[in-house]
Specification:
mainly alpha, elongated, 73% helix, single chain
Length: 343
C-alpha cells in the first residue's frame, strides 16, 4: 500500500481511542483500540499513584503572571486547575506596570493605588482593584474586536476585487485566438482614446505634437503612417477616430504578415494572437501583485485617518475603488505597450 503520513496515523489513533466500539469497525481500528487499552492498563497503576499524590497536595496550582488581551484565555488557564471535578487552585499575580495596563489603563489605575495608599512593593488585593483590571481588559477586548471587524471589512473589499480579476484572467486564459484579437483591438481603441483625451484642452483643442509623441511610444509600428498634418485642425473626436482607424489597419496588417510568414515556414497561424494572450496574462499577473502590496499599504494608511475623525472602512473602500480602476487601466496600457514593442 501507500506510505502512511504522521497525520494519517494521528487520525487513525483518534478514531480508535475517541470513538465507541462498533460492529462495523475495520480490523485495524479494533487492533489499535486494543493496543491503546493495553498501554493504559500498563501505566494505570503508576499514574494512579501520581494522581493521588497531586490530589493530596491540593491538586494543580495554576499561577498567572499577567492578564491576556482576551479574558477567554485567562478563563481557560483557570479551568486547567479543576478539570472533571479534580481539586485545584488558580491565582494571578499582576502589576500595574504591565504593558496592557499602562497603555489602556491610563491614570485610572494609578488613582486606585492612591486610594489604597500603599507603597509600590506592597501587594494589593481588593474587589475594586479586580474590577478596575477587568474594565481595562474589557476595553482591550473591545479594541481588538473593532480591529478584527475592520480587517474583515477590508478583506471583503479585496476579495471582491480578487474575484473580478480572477474572472478576467480566466476569460483571457481560455479565450480563442479570434477572441484574443478582439480583446487587443479593443485595448488599442481604448488606449488611443485615453491618449487623445489626455492631450485635449478645455477649449476642445488637441495638442497634436503630444499625441504624436504618445502614439510613437505606444504604437511605434503605426507612428510612421500618421503625420501631424493628418491631425491638424481636427477636434478630439476626429483625432481619436483617425488614429484608431490607422492603428487598427496596421495591427491587422501585422497579423496578416506574421500569418503569411508562419505559413511559409510551416508553423501554425495566429502567432500574434498567442503572443498577445501570453503578454496579457503576464502583465495582468504583475500588475495584480503590485496592487496587492499597494492595498496592504493603504490598509495601514487608512487606520491613521481615524485620528482625523474619518471612518477607516469608508476611506479604504473609496481609495480601493480608485486604485482598482487604475489597476485595470495599467493592465491595458502595459499589455498594449509590450505587444506593440514586439511588432
Amino acid at each position: 500500500g501507500t506510505a502512511m503520513t504522521a497525520n494519517d496515523l494521528d487520525e487513525l489513533l483518534t478514531v480508535a481511542t475517541d470513538t465507541t466500539e462498533g460492529p462495523e469497525d475495520p480490523e485495524h481500528i479494533v487492533l489499535l483500540r486494543d493496543a491503546a487499552d493495553a498501554v493504559k492498563g500498563l501505566y494505570k497503576e503508576i499514574l494512579s499513584e501520581e494522581k493521588e499524590a497531586v490530589i493530596s497536595r491540593g491538586g494543580l496550582y495554576v499561577m498567572g503572571t499577567n492578564r491576556h488581551e482576551s479574558s477567554r484565555i485567562d478563563q481557560q488557564l483557570r479551568g486547567r486547575s479543576g478539570r472533571q471535578g479534580d481539586p485545584g487552585t488558580s491565582r494571578f499575580f499582576l502589576s500595574f506596570e504591565d504593558d496592557m495596563f499602562v497603555v489602556f489603563g491610563g491614570d485610572g489605575l494609578q488613582n486606585v493605588l492612591k486610594t489604597f495608599r500603599v507603597s509600590d512593593d506592597m501587594p494589593v488585593e481588593a474587589p475594586q482593584v479586580t474590577k478596575a483590571l477587568d474594565n481595562v481588559q474589557g476595553a482591550v477586548e473591545e479594541k481588538y474586536r473593532e480591529i478584527r471587524e475592520q480587517i474583515l471589512q477590508f478583506d471583503d473589499v479585496l476579495n471582491e476585487q480578487r474575484g473580478l480579476i480572477y474572472k478576467r484572467r480566466q476569460k483571457t486564459l481560455f479565450s480563442s485566438m479570434d477572441e484574443t484579437m478582439d480583446i487587443i483591438s479593443e485595448y488599442n481603441k481604448e488606449t488611443v482614446a485615453e491618449i487623445v483625451k489626455a492631450q485635449t484642452a478645455e477649449d476642445g483643442s488637441v495638442n497634436v505634437e503630444k499625441v504624436m509623441e504618445k502614439i510613437s511610444q505606444f504604437f511605434p509600428a503605426a507612428a510612421s503612417f500618421i503625420t501631424a498634418g493628418d491631425l491638424a485642425g481636427q477636434d478630439q473626436s476626429g483625432v481619436e477616430s483617425f488614429v484608431s482607424v490607422a492603428v487598427d489597419e496596421i495591427f491587422q496588417q501585422k497579423a496578416s504578415e506574421l500569418d503569411s510568414k508562419a505559413q511559409a515556414e510551416g508553423r501554425p497561424p495566429m502567432s500574434l494572437a498567442r503572443s498577445a494572450n501570453y503578454i496579457n496574462l503576464v502583465t495582468m499577473d504583475n500588475a495584480w501583485s503590485e496592487h496587492l502590496q499597494s492595498m496592504e499599504d493603504l490598509k495601514e494608511n487608512v487606520i491613521l485617518r481615524k485620528y482625523q475623525g474619518l471612518d477607516p472602512v469608508a476611506e479604504y473602500k473609496d481609495e480601493a475603488f480608485k486604485m482598482f480602476q487604475g489597476l485595470i487601466e495599467k493592465m491595458r496600457f502595459n499589455a498594449v505597450y509590450s505587444l506593440w514593442q514586439s511588432l
